[in-house]
Amino acid sequence: MARILVTGSADGLGRMVAGELIEQGHEVVLHARNKTRGVDARTALPKAADVLIGDLAVIAETQELARRANASGRFDVIIHNAAVGYREPRIETVDGLEHVFAINVLAPYLLTALIDRPGRLIYLSSGMHLGGDIVLDDLQWVRRRWNGSQAYSDSKLYDVVLAFAVARLWPDTPSNAVDPGWVPTKMGGASAPDDLTLGHLTQTWLAVGNDPAARVTGGYWHHRKQQKPAAEALDPDFQDRLTDKLAELTGISLF
To answer: Phi and psi of 178, rounded to 5°?
Structure first.
């Protein structure tokens, strides 16, 4: 039995991943951004071990979430599932950060840095990362004209970069990125063409699979098959520049 934390598991793919792992007999800790969502998560998955609350748009709450996670005991697996999509306008968080970046990129970085190192790490990305731009001098979309789709693509590129940076620098901790497909969740929309029933299976397989294929590190996966990621994600120099930038923003170093 593995002990697993799934961020953003009040609904959507996060809830599906958590539910599948619970049914397999694993100890799953859910996460929701507020108490109301936490009740929703617990109601949907009453066999979950616990629900941790924390708004990932807020640095202080993300840090507190990490503290509570550590206090609850070591995790075998952490699935960084929480994310927001590309349909919102540019919003600034209480920390003065752009909202999509804060949740999709900075939060998994902080949780990776602050939560005791687990046995496996999984980061949710998207095929849209292939259209992501490298703009490290304007991560907050202050200089550029806002484009929600581009901001989302950028964030998903940075998620793959983070997964690969961890894989390179923590070689004993399998770290992978997953494209679940464009599935009809609340984020993906009702017209999304991919099969929702397949959207969570790669995450569960990478989380607890014992066959050698599921225990690799530094992979970018779609439906249990490795895919070719954006070339930038494979560049160790870019990995270091991104993690250095995130450390500068937070005052917390990953390595």
So the answer is: -130, 135
